[in-house]
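Data availability (excerpt). The following record was deposited with the supplementary files.
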Amino acid sequence: MNKLLFSIGLACASLVATGQNYIIPSTNINQKGFPHILPDLSVEFEVKAPEANLVQIDICGTKYALTRGENGVWKGATAPQVPGFHYYNLVVDGVGVADPASESFYGCGRMMSAIDIPEPNCDDFEIANVPHGQVRELHYFSNVTNSWRPLFVYTPASYETGNKTYPVIYIHHGGGEDHRGWVEQGRTANIMDNLIAAGKATEAIVVSVNSNVPSKGGYSQEGMASYSKELIDNVIPFVEKTFRTKNDAASRAMCGLSMGGGQTFYIGLVHPELFRSIGIFSSGIFGGIAEAPLDLEKEVPGMISATKKFNKGLDVFYISCGEQDLRISHTKKYTDKMKNAGVNVYFNSFAGDHEWQVWRKSFHEFAQMLFK
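Predicted structure:
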């Protein structure tokens, strides 16, 4: 790869106005460089690769060929993109690589470049002139993996100034991501800061866990056993020992996206003695990526056979999905089954596919329901 000179950048929703007919993303290393977000939300790229035979941009699984110009500079643009955060690759002669001139994010099981297409009326995802909490990276010892493991912990702005205790949200990433996802891609701290400042959310600690623990059995109680032990025996005790937390079930919430939503379903719903608020975002447990009928009563005993008792064990039961996500119809189907059985479940959908803008909006809504 030493034959390549890259001049590609990265976009985030925090943007720099240029006075030009495009937006330069604030996370471009070179603030005069590429990519450019055009008025129709297409993205313009420029890459210098004089010895390459083919240069493409792979964004959201769609490849766009760039056109070679003078001095080996390749240029081109994507189709208009939906607002939100999208991973992308630079593809040179068939080799997909992250852009070394941009910020990188851990997603899709590797470090990836990404671009954040701005969306109106999403100010709560941005840094604002409000009191700011802190995000700490800590390590705890796991007796499940016999290793030190990382997690991120958000504490509200008021945490540093008194002796107050706080409820806790345990938030989980998707497959191919880790504990960094909700903090970096998900904008959790910004969302909490802004909601708390506006009086829309209860002050709470948010723990972003690395839930990539070796397991067998996939989406099942057996498959979730090792991470269930990790969360219950290691993570929660560590957090409650380290921070000023409220340690009752009504003061704990569990939520997650995709794989993390499946973990929340199989662990959070069967432990009402630990969690009274549950949020499941864009999970494949209901179908859409692999068809396998889900027996709600078998997986969560009492959900259907003892619905009144099940409902009493929860303060919030929230499910969401992107409207263009392959999982949407299946999620609606099972949510309707729950409602028809008398389960108190709230469902919402947001424009978008299986991507971070949907999950930001999901957490934004879920957080406002908690600990009331």
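Summary of structural features: Residues 125 and 191 are 5 Å apart (CA to CA).
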